[in-house]
Specification:
homodimer, mainly alpha, Methane Monooxygenase Hydroxylase, Chain G, domain 1, 7 helices, 0% strand, elongated
Chain lengths: 238, 238
């Protein structure tokens, strides 16, 4: 094998490794997405068996995080990636942590769904939480799409949407406080609902983080904690 | 300059860079520790001015996370670290995220302290939260010490302690539910206290994460999500 074909061979293997870990992250994302959807369904429909499945899925999600992190460390050590390859590996390390935390929140919703299934059902069902959950699900799906396709526009949109999710959660929390004051016997149930809404809101935060990594990946720009308007103007000028 | 002194020179610079980013992380840790201590003091003493200081400190913490991440990316790109140096850089990237989230929780406690300062004070003060907070403060301090001195024994101890913190938080949460059911007019105040206890519990989780990175750093072993007893036996045999 001459030097040129050897280096092509190595670079082909290297690309395959990068592609493999990227695709592992997206599989992990798919599993977490399913976990969130099932957690919401279990809560809204009072399905404690489905809720148990959600709780148990968490082990697999945790294991995926460890595998992905190990693979990223191996690539950093052996391939010494630079520029956009390096940003990809760093983004994957960070994203795997966020996905794992999203899985934790889905697991919490699973536990709450089990607890709520054993209590009286509110007359209106869990309409507000269901609506919030649908919005968060859509946000997670778009964030994973943005990561898969490196779509900065989608990422910027989702980062903005997170503010709406936070506002919707706060409205639910305020309503819950009113309910508890009106009828102290419902405190346990209302509080469980409120924790579930809180977990959904946190899942939204993590989806937002994923989108921030997409922008970092594509533009090498860290838009966390910053003025998004200024960053967006700058990105559009590029 | 001959080759040998050049390579020594480069390696000296490289070590300085690693040391600089490690020390930046520890400074960030020191700032977050102070933020947590002040948040707890503000809450317990009803000092809303101190609470505002805590809230405002968050910008500095966020900025430190970005700076540390940038420096780690630069080191990965230019120095292509291997083995324990690589683990150090990865551990610092992960730890900066946890410290930033600890800062977020301290900021939340700051907001809650402002809200609580405007309400009636409970007759017993905030004794339980203060106790939980003291335990979490000690845990954070030890976790940062373990990181600074690469002490695996301390790290293992703190990881175990987190279970006690979680149990203490759950006891407070149960008590809060009883209070709310007994006196619905206190719902807002009791809920604010409960959120503060929850934030302290989460700070404990992040301190535990820092300790897991210490073990990864020293032994190259990922003890997250795993059976700690088995990992500990294995580490002791090394």
């Amino acid at each position: 094998m001459d030097t040129r074909s050897l280096s092509q061979h190595i670079s082909h293997e290297y690309n395959q490794e990068l592609e493999a870990v990227r695709s592992q992250l997206l599989s992990m994302g798919g599993l977490v997405e399913q976990q969130i959807n099932q957690a919401l369904q279990a809560l809204v429909e009072g399905d404690s068996q489905l809720a148990e499945t959600v709780v148990q899925t968490d082990d697999r999600v945790n294991q995926m995080e460890i595998t992905i992190d190990e693979e990223c460390s191996r690539i950093l050590a052996r391939r010494q990636p630079a520029a956009s390859d390096l940003r990809l590996v760093i983004a994957i390390i960070k994203a795997s942590t966020d996905l794992e935390r999203m899985g934790d929140e889905a697991q919490k919703i699973g536990h709450l769904a089990v607890s709520l299934a054993g209590q009286d059902r509110p007359s209106g069902g869990y309409r507000e939480i269901d609506q919030l959950g649908q919005a968060v699900q859509a946000m997670v799906r778009s964030a994973l799409d943005a990561f898969a396709r490196l779509e900065v526009d989608t990422a910027l949109r989702i980062i903005r949407e997170d503010k709406l999710i936070n506002r919707e959660y706060e409205a639910i929390a305020r309503q819950c406080i009113d309910y508890m004051m009106e009828d102290p016997h419902r405190v346990r149930r209302v509080l469980d609902s409120m924790w579930a809404a809180r977990s959904l809101e946190r899942i939204g935060d993590h989806a937002k983080n994923l989108c921030e990594y997409v922008i970092y990946l594509v533009h090498g720009k860290d838009v966390r904690h910053g003025n998004l308007d200024a960053a967006e103007r700058e990105l559009l000028q590029q």
